[in-house]
Structure formats: C-alpha cells, structure tokens
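The pair is listed for reference:
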Amino acid sequence: MHYIAEWNGQRFDYRDSGSGPVILLIHGTQSDYREVYHVEKLITAGYRVIVPSRPGYGRTPLQLADSPEALATFYAGWLASRQIEQYTVYGISAGGPTAIALAGMDPGVHALVLACAMTHRISLPYHRLLIQPVLQRPLQFIQWGLWTYVKDKIRKFPEEAAVRMVEMTSLLPRETIRTHISETDASLLYEVGLQNGPGRGVLFDITQDIERERLEAVTCPVLIVHSKSDRAVPFEHAEHARRSIPHAQFIESKSPGHLIWIGPSARRDERMIERFIAFNQMTQMT
C-alpha cells in the first residue's frame, strides 16, 4: 500500500506491504517507494517491507534531509513513533550510505544488507560542475528527455533495451551481457525501465558521503552482495565495506552489471539474502 505521511514537520511517501518481521528497504537512484528489486519475493517469504521514497524521489521533498546521517536519524525516529523496535535494513545502491548510518546508530537494527551499495562518495566526472545550483533545472530537463527516449525504446525494442540498460552500468562488452540476460531478466528490466524516472534526488545521491567511522560503528550482522562487473558503483565500494566492517559476510554476485537481481546468480543471491535475514531474525528471537 502507498501512503503519504507527515512526521516531525515533514511530508513524505512510502510503501508498507506484507506482514511479519519488518524490513526497511532503502532504494537507489531514480527509484522511489515503488522499488521493484526483491520486494515481492520478500513479502511472499513472510516479511513486512517498508520502502520510503528518499529525498527528491516520489513525493518526498529534497529538503527532507541533507545527508545520510540526517536521513537515518529521521527514519529511526519515524519507525520508533510507529512502535517498530526491531527491523532489518536493506540498502540498495545509493541507499547504502543511509542504510549504513542507520545500522550504526539504531540498536533496533538487527541485520544490515548492502546490495550493490555505495559505501563512500561516488566518483563522477565533472562532479563539481554537476552540483552547481544554477545547473539543477537544466539537468532536470536533460534527465526528463533521456528518460522519455529510454521509455520509448523499451516499449519498441524490449529485449535490446534490456541489454543496453545493463550495459550502462557494466564493465562487460555488450555481447557478453547479452548471453547473461534471461527472459525473466528482460521482463524485470522492462518493468523497471517503465517505472523509474528523473528525480531531484540525484543531487542528494552524488553529493552524499559516509565517513569510515560510520561503517566501523556497525556491530549488527552484515551481508554485502556486489558484482565485479559493476561500473555504476565499483567493486571497490564492497571492498571498502569489508575492510571497515571485519565481521561482514560477503557474496560475490555474478551479475553482468550493477544490478544483482539480474543475471545467472540473481535467484541464488536473493535466496542467500533471505536466509541471512531469516537466520538473524531467528537469532534475535532466541
């Protein structure tokens, strides 16, 4: 279910679906409360999944928070106000820094999943130029134009569009990517491509950072899942998290790009995440 909430003087939207132990899923760039990756399978597995739209996405204003720490503090307070005292945090891509900050500050977090997640500031060409306030409106128009073009191609050429979508975040050549994408993957990418779109939250994503001390403060069980073929969030982010959180478990995804829910190991990776969450939920109860 989609909800609009007001809490602590802020208005934002979120999805709250399923029943059972709570998973707070923190989505990545150019997504929102409608996040597709793994959500339905987690609900089917018996979890209550809460997906808030991060700042600048969905109906959540960019001004909701100006850093991962501020956003994590907001989420912790909001969940406490709803009497949610124990939960798992599942951070995807640009949602990683907020997930890390939340796991390090809230003792109610009993497990953390980092899926293809940023663990420090992302390195981008022309970074200083891209964050200039005077350029934000023109960049919004560019994003809108690009997504209009992409959605048109997805509708007309869904199979080829799936390959090109993965290619944008992959270190692999196009023909290798083509051999790694199944019909199920193409259907998922079709759904994602038509749902995702431009958002002011990109500014939050490319300016956010998380200090190493925040990672070192995480004491709950941690699972990191990342692919070496990831160009969007390079594999070094996973290595950085492993160095900073020595007790973290790690799974190398065989995804052909950024998205671990695509490719030959997708279902294995999802099952491993589900087992990790279930094990730590059971441990918490004993």
